[in-house]
Specification:
Length: 223
């Protein structure tokens, strides 16, 4: 099953271009193709795990379907680690690959796997996004803008913050219901996890959302 980033190809391209233009004067790219072929270290709980590659994520996106997330996230465990005790239900899993030269995924040579859940009474989605070029989070800027109800200026500030963030450190939107985290990556490229809970707001506190995203990021590996 395939999904599309909100807004359609043209809108996605316009949003991404506007944000990148605003952020282009703020310094280097911070993270791009790796020189040593491996970034990152221990996952959640201190256990070392092999990171995904962008190529592996493309394969997962091509085959994504059903309700079992192909990226091995344990949502109940991450919630417990964040001291959040709510019922979790799995929902649909979708993948997306570039479908035209003007799409955001084509521009970044990327891939996307989205895994849906219900946490208590709120809809939640975990987006694992990879980019062969540039910052993986930038692929999902339109999704982040939609789910966090951000104006363009707020989205630009958020993109600047994510561009400077350390690997494994969640960056929350002002609404507190969207968090992005850079993931370790095997080989070249960039990987990130974007977590959204609720629509424009969430019942989780900022502390809980940060801890939830951090623990999920520690699980977002394969091997």
């Amino acid at each position: 099953m395939k999904r599309r980033i909100p807004g359609g190809g043209l809108t996605v391209a316009v949003v991404v271009a506007a944000v990148l233009a605003a952020c282009s004067g703020q310094g280097g790219d911070g993270h791009g193709s790796g020189g040593d072929g491996h970034r990152g270290g221990d996952g959640a709980g201190g256990k070392s795990a092999a990171p995904l590659s962008v190529a592996a994520l493309r394969s997962l996106a091509a085959d994504a379907e059903g309700t079992t997330c192909p990226v091995p996230y344990d949502v109940p465990a991450a919630l417990r680690a964040a001291d959040v005790h709510r019922q979790v239900e799995r929902r649909s899993v979708e993948g997306e690959l570039p479908d035209g030269p003007d799409s955001a995924l084509a521009r970044f040579k990327g891939a996307l796997v989205g895994c849906g859940y219900r946490i208590g009474g709120e809809r939640a989605r975990l987006f694992t996004v990879g980019a062969g070029e540039g910052h993986a989070v930038n692929v999902l800027l339109p999704q982040i803008q939609h789910d966090a109800r951000l104006e363009m200026a707020g989205l630009q500030r958020y993109a600047a913050r994510t561009g400077k963030a350390a690997e494994g450190e969640p960056v929350l939107t002002p609404s507190g219901n969207v968090a992005s985290v850079r993931l370790p990556v095997a080989g070249d490229g960039d990987l990130a996890l974007v977590v959204t809970v609720g629509e424009g707001r969430t019942q989780l506190s900022r502390t809980e959302m940060t801890a939830f995203a951090r623990h999920l990021a520690g699980q977002g590996t394969r091997g």
